[in-house]
Amino acid sequence: xxxxxxxxxxxxxxxxxxxxxxxxxxxxxxxxxxxxxxxxxxxxxxxxxxxxxxxxxxxxxxxxxxxxxxxxxxxxxxxxxxxxxxxxxxxxxxxxxxxxxxxxxxxxxxxxxxxxxxxxxxxxxxxxxxxxxxxxxxxxxxxxxxxxxxxxxxxxxxx
Length: 159
Known about the structure:
This protein is an alpha+beta fold. It is 34% helix and 29% strand. The chain has helices spanning 16-35, 40-50, 94-109, 123-129, and strands spanning 6-10, 56-61, 64-73, 78-85, 113-118, 133-137, 141-146. A hairpin with a 4-residue loop joins strand 3 (64-73) and strand 4.
């Protein structure tokens, strides 16, 4: 499934509601496990504070928008800030394919790929399978890193 016909398009400010909706459906339970009950007003405020359409791409499969990915292209690394998929799009290799593409870019540019993940989020296991190592942790998150000398991510798409 590593050759899904995914398309990425630039996020527009008008995609704001879709981006919030996908994050809510995909991530609410992990936020609640970590921080307590969902507060719609607070979550919308936090979304508006952090929404960066210039760094975000909408993920489409078969002409249907199914999620979004946010990558910060920083001088020292490629930071995977967010990747969210609608629940029905999860578990089909979409995230793996996109992260493998990011890893390949990191390899080509000789830059590490970094991310942070909530400790309760099972996506952490995917990151580990793709060769990300734990860099450090805080109470709620693991900070992870894929380095250019890591070969584990090379063949991850074959597993």
